Amino acid sequence: MLNQLQIKRYSYRLQVEFRTLSKICKKLYYKYAPSRLTHRRNASLVKVPDYEIIALLVWQAEEGISSQRRFARCWGLCGLSRSRFNRRARALLGITAQIINDLNSRVDLSDQYMIIDSLPMPLCQPIRNRRAKVFEGTANIGYNSTKKFYYYGFKGHFAVSQDGYVLGYVIIKASIHDAKEAEELILSTRTEGHFILGDEGYIGKRLHDALKIDGYIQWTPYRKNMKGAKQHNKRELMAIRRTIESVFSVLKYYEIENILARSVDGFQQTVEIIVLTYNISYILHRYGFSFFN
Q1: Domains and CATH numbers, the chain
Q2: Is the separation of the CB atoms in 116 and 186 below 8 Å?
C-alpha cells in the first residue's frame, strides 16, 4: 500500500506565453467544439476566434483577476465589448466541461491514491451572511472548521491525485456535511485508483461501508482522542494527504474563493476555467506541450 510514496508533489502554476496558451486552446477547441460553432455563419470573419476567448479566460485565471472590469482594462478584450465577450464566453461553457472530462481520461494516474477535501466558497463578507440575496435558495450559511468562521455561499469538494492533478469536483451548499457528498464525488471521477485519503470530516461508518461496496478503501486520520490514533495515523499517508493543500493554495491564487459571478452559468464557468487552468499547468509540467498534439 505504501509503495507509491516516492511520487513527487508539485505546486502547479501555468508559466507559458499567451501565444503558446492560445495554440493549446486552439487544439482543444477544434477537437471538442460542435459544428454549430465551428461552422456557423461568418465564423471565419470574427475579430476574436472562440479558442482565443478560452485562452483569455484561462489567462485571466492564471493572473488571479476576479474582476471582469479589471480584466477588460488589462486586455481591452481585443476590441470586443464586455457584454459581447461574456455572451461568447457563456456559449463555450459546455466545451470547457468536455475538455476537462477528456483530459481526465487521457492523463495516466493508475495506481495513485485519490485525496478528497473541501474548501469554502463564500459569496460575501461574514457580516452580510444574514442579508445576502445572491443565489438565494441555492447557497446558504455553513461553518468552516479549519478557519473557524461562518460564511454564506457554497462548498467545493475536490478529488485530486497524490501528485496533484484535479480529478473532479462538486459544488454544494455550504451547510452540507463533507461525508454526504464524498461518495458521489469519488464515483464521478471514474479513477483506476481505489485507495481514498480524506481528513477527519469524512470519518463515518456509513461512508466507509458505502465506498467498500463500490470497491474503494477509505483512510482518514483518527482524532487524537480516538483509540489507536497513534498507530493508525501513519506519517506517510498524512504527508500524501497534504498534497491537496498545495492544490488548494494554487486554486485560491486563481481566486476560487472569491468568485464574483452572480449567475449560475457565470459561476459554473469560472470554476471550470480555474480547474482547466490548473490541469493544463499540471499536464505541461508532467508531459510537455507534445501532450496536446
Answers
A1: 11-106+260-293 (no CATH), 107-258 (3.30.420)
A2: yes
- CB-count exposure of residue 215 (10 Å: 0-12, 13-18, 19+): exposed
Question: DSSP assignment of 10-68, as one string?
Answer: --------HHHHHHHHHHHHHHH--HHHHTSTTGGG-SS-HHHHHHHHHHHHHTT---H
- Cα separation, 211 vs 222, in Å, equals 18
Evaluate whether 66 touches 260 at the Cβ level (below 8 Å): yes
Instruction: Give the tens place of pLDDT for each residue, 187-236.
Output: 787 666 678 888 877 877 788 788 888 788 888 888 777 777 777 778 88
Cα-based distances in Å from 258 to 33, 123, 252, 270, 271: 29, 7, 8, 10, 11
**Cα–Cα distance for residue pair 172/289, rounded to 1 Å:** 34
* Total residue count of the chain as it appears in this document: 293
Residue 246, classed as helix, strand or coil, is helix
Residue 37 backbone class (left: φ over 0; alpha: ψ -120 to 50; beta: rest): alpha
Q: Which residues contact 178 (CB under 8 A, 6 or more apart)?
A: 118, 155, 157, 198, 201, 202
The residues that bridge with 193 in the sheet, in sequence order, are none
Residue 136 CB contacts under 8 Å (≥ 6 apart), including other chains: none
Rounded distance, CA 231 to CA 237, Å? Answer: 12
pTM of the model: 0.88
